[in-house]
Design goal:
Length: 899
């Protein structure tokens, strides 16, 4: 029976009830040892009526074993694995040791766990209980938290119990489990032990009403102490001492088994080790028959431990603490030595490591092998722990540095950037590191810094190398920092390398920025190589996008970014997906597909936060701010821009700071605040490295010209045009020529240039921007009939895109031209949520629900749920109709609609 926990229990019951109704969720029970978290989990399981229950308990001795907790949780439902998408199924099978495949990546594994639990939840729901989360191995913890953040449409309740301040990120609902209310504590003492109120009051005050402490202490009081006729012991037993007397009272055999179980929860090896150790203690040649089983019976009878399947569990973690504290260190090392003889694989490696008393290359090598196994299964956090311990046991500084470096990489891939940087710093400090290893460490430092730290510091670190790969990394960092001078220097250095796609791109960008006529030629050659070779990696497509962007061809750059996104999703290298999605979201936004851009950025934002990439978080926030600006969502735009700048400015990520600043300027322009917009655009153009980027300055030029003219600054507009013409001198795609023609038409007040731009446009949204500008000029020239066609087309396009300020401006102009304005055209797909929009886009590509689930790291059931919601929203009834809507929305400007 639970005493005094109605509020906590009610909260958990509500989470379970919502989950059973199809609105899954997670909650964290947080409290000190003995507060009653496990009892609350047990009660919650009993309140789920016919819902299925799965549970796992973190064990301190298994915290370094990859997927130990996940194995406990999922083993009863592995029969449902065949229902999962193949990549998810293979990742889960590998993590659980059911197949030889490698899991390789955290996202498919997390999605596979979600899908498997979703299958297990049919038909009545599922309750997952994770006790002692503070000791759950890192690989399992990552997969469970990934799942917990994606339960909104599942019939799953995921409940965590955790001691102390161990973080459980991404779970908003925390239930604090403190001491019992005094009345409830007194009632518990009276009911269980007959404690009168006066003694109860003293016990409650001394224990903070901790229920375990109250129960255990009351059970040890004499009748006189319970009655209040004798004083209470001083001090009262507490913490590990709470069970110290019971541990001390065990027979030697039971104490030995308790010591073994404290470091090895598998009952088979624990019993065999106890027999061997007992034989050694008694001087016998072989294991003592039944010594372990006799000891086990005593532990169970004493209420200290119990069997759960093939595992021996202490009734409470504090009992393990009491056993561990009572054991001499040499005795524990002896236990580990024997267990290492009885176990294999990861368990053997960790027992050997715990038995080691100094550097030992043989043991270090076993840990390295365990780390490799964990890494192949996607357990990067566990691999990092094993490699770090292997480094401690490595006698020679050179191999030690290599292992520290490998541990840093594993920690980074496991979403622990702080640990990764600390390990890498330790690797650098090892004496005798050779030049090649030093450069490898420097490259990793630079990459870590670029993703999570100061972009200009990343440039400095990466510039120390001279390989084309390291120069390319340095150039990437310089582009993020907005450091033109560094890009030019790096381009010159890259030009000294043999020709090739990466060399031509890096050299071409640097030379083009320096005004060298050889630069554009190198970029054209790089693009030709990319087209001929069909890049297999997302990074190659992004470099091709960079080459096209430097040439002024944003349409080609956007197409390359979209291809990078598709490759990143299907390649299995999904760790790079949050970064790739920065560029995919930008491409969607430049195409005027605002809802799609928002959906991609929200996905990228969630993944970047999970991966620990703050600079990528800034990128997605900045893009979301621009989308909000185009939609006229002023408060959202300002908030998102502030959040992006709060990361980008101190990290000196000029590219993202520039985009966030652009969002504010574009908001002003869309709302007709031309002077304010011009002021912001001018400040962005003048800002240096770390505050903006040449790419931002060039891309904002058409908007800057429009703002300057609206503010009456004609000379400033022509100055911006001159710079834009220089930057676009080598652009040949129709869309790039259309934007240049529009800018000339604005700056020189030539309607024929605007008409030429409309003839060239392939981007529907930019065509509408040009049509609006031309329509405004035609109306002011008293040519309303001609103006009305342009303004009507612009208004309809803006309405479909959801660009509210621009649509209102077009409708106002249309009414002024005597058109009266049509009824707003519904932006059909804007009715969808970001997740629904992502699913709709993949349906349009012809993907099945299983393949969509694999791409978006969802369960197939979640995909079907969203499709069930999508159809009535759009008034359709099939995938074919949905695909048609998506394809029509992405269609370029029809030839007949161009002027």
């Amino acid at each position: 029976m639970l005493y005094g926990r109605s509020a906590e229990s009610g909260t958990l019951d509500e989470v379970i009830a919502r989950a059973r109704a199809g609105h899954g969720g997670a909650a964290v029970l947080r409290g000190e040892a003995g507060a009653g978290k496990t009892a609350l989990l047990d009660a919650a399981a009993g309140h789920g009526t016919d819902a299925r229950v799965l549970r796992a308990t973190g064990v301190e001795a298994e915290a370094g074993l990859a997927f130990a907790a996940l194995h406990q949780l999922l083993w009863p439902v592995t029969g449902a694995l065949d229902a999962l998408p193949a990549p998810q199924r293979d990742a889960v099978r590998a993590a659980l040791g059911l197949a030889g495949e490698t899991a390789g990546d955290l996202y498919p594994l997390g999605a596979g766990v979600l899908s498997l639990l979703a299958e297990a939840a049919a038909p009545h729901g599922l309750i997952c209980l994770i006790d002692d989360f503070q000791w759950v191995d890192r690989a399992s913890a990552h997969a469970l938290l990934f799942t917990a953040r994606r339960l909104a449409t599942e019939r799953i309740a995921l409940l965590f119990a955790v001691r102390g301040d161990t973080p459980v990120p991404g779970i908003p609902l925390t239930v604090q489990v403190g001491g019992l209310p005094h009345a409830a504590a007194a009632e518990m003492l009276r009911a269980r032990h007959g404690v009168p109120s006066g003694v109860a009051r003293d016990l409650i005050a001394a224990t903070g009403a901790n229920p375990l402490a109250l129960d255990e202490i009351a059970a040890r009081l004499s009748p006189a102490q319970l009655a209040g006729t004798a004083p209470l012991p001083d001090p009262l037993p507490g913490g590990a001492r709470l069970f110290g007397d019971r541990v001390a009272a065990l027979s030697p055999g039971a104490a030995l088994l308790a010591r073994v179980a404290a470091v090895e929860p598998e009952v088979g090896p624990a019993l065999r080790a106890t027999g061997l150790l007992h034989a050694e203690d008694s001087g016998r040649a072989g294991p003592v028959a039944d010594a372990g089983r006799t000891a086990l019976a005593e532990l169970e009878e004493a209420g200290l431990a119990e069997l759960h399947g093939a595992r021996l569990r202490f009734r409470h973690p504090l009992i393990r603490s009491a056993v561990y504290e009572a054991a001499p260190r040499a005795g524990l090392r002896r236990v580990h030595t024997v267990l290492a003889q009885l176990t294999t694989g990861d368990r053997r490696a960790w027992h050997l490591a715990s038995a080691a008393v100094g550097p030992d290359e043989r043991v270090a090598a076993e840990l390295v092998a365990a780390a490799e196994r964990a890494r192949e299964r996607g357990g990067y956090g566990s691999a990092a722990t094993a490699l770090a311990r292997a480094a401690e046991l490595t006698p020679e500084p050179g191999p030690r540095a290599v292992r520290l470096k490998d541990a840093a990489v594993a920690a980074w891939l496991g979403g622990r950037p702080g640990q990764a940087e600390s390990l890498l710093a330790e690797a650098r400090e090892q004496p005798g590191t050779d030049t090649a290893l030093a450069l490898e460490i420097a490259r990793l430092r630079g990459r870590f810094e670029l993703n999570a730290g100061d972009a200009t510091e990343a440039v400095r670190i990466l510039s120390t190398g001279d390989s084309i790969g390291m120069l390319a990394d340095a150039a990437e960092a310089a582009s993020y920092a907005g450091d033109t001078a560094a890009l030019i220097r790096l381009g010159r250095r890259a030009a000294a390398h043999p020709p090739g796609f990466l060399r031509d791109t890096v050299a071409g960008i640097g030379l083009a920025l320096d005004g060298d006529p050889a630069g554009p030629g190198l970029l054209r050659r790089a693009l030709a190589q990319a087209r001929a070779g069909e890049p297999r990696e997302a990074a190659e497509y992004l470099w091709a996008a960079a080459a096209a962007g430097q040439l002024g061809e944003t349409d080609l750059a956007a197409g390359m970014a979209e291809r990078a996104g598709r490759v990143a999703r299907v390649s299995g290298m999904t760790g790079q997906l949050p970064v790739v999605l920065e560029f995919v979201a930008t491409a969607e936004r430049l195409a005027g597909r605002l809802a799609s851009s928002r959906a991609v950025s929200e996905e990228g934002l969630a993944l970047a936060r999970e991966a620990g990439y703050p600079n990528t978080v800034a990128a997605h926030l900045a893009n979301l701010a621009v989308v909000a600006a185009l939609r006229g969502e002023q408060e959202d735009c300002e908030r998102l821009a502030r959040e992006a700048l709060a990361i980008a400015v101190p990290h000196r990520v000029g590219l993202r700071a520039g985009v966030a600043g652009y969002a504010r300027a574009l908001l002003d322009l869309g709302l007709g605040r031309h002077a304010a917009a011009h002021e912001r655009f001018t400040a962005l153009t003048a800002a240096g490295a770390g505050a903006t980027s040449p790419a931002v300055v060039w891309r904002i030029a058409p908007d800057h010209i429009e703002a300057a003219l609206g503010a009456g600054e004609e000379a400033a507009a022509r100055e911006v045009l001159a710079a834009y013409e220089r930057s676009s001198a080598h652009a040949t795609t129709p869309e790039s020529r259309a934007l240049l023609a529009r800018c000339r038409g604005l700056a020189h007040s030539r309607a024929e240039d605007l008409a030429e731009a409309l003839r060239l446009h392939t981007n529907t949204f930019e065509a509408a921007r040009t049509a609006l500008l031309l329509g405004e000029r035609l109306r002011r020239a008293r040519r309303p009939a001609e103006a009305r066609g342009q303004l009507r087309r612009a208004a309809e396009t803006f309405e479909r895109a959801g660009a509210g300020p621009w649509a209102r401006r077009a409708r106002d102009e249309l009414r002024a031209a005597g058109g009266g304005g049509p009824a707003p055209v519904p932006a059909v797909l804007d009715a969808l949520t970001p997740q629904e929009l992502r699913i709709a886009g993949l349906v349009a590509e012809g993907l099945s629900s299983k393949r969509i689930a694999d791409r978006l790291f969802l369960s197939p059931r979640t995909v079907e749920y969203h499709l069930y919601k999508i159809y009535p929203k759009l008034g359709i009834g099939s995938r074919t109709e949905l695909a048609r809507l998506v394809v029509l929305r992405k269609a370029p400007v029809p030839e007949a609609d161009r002027l």
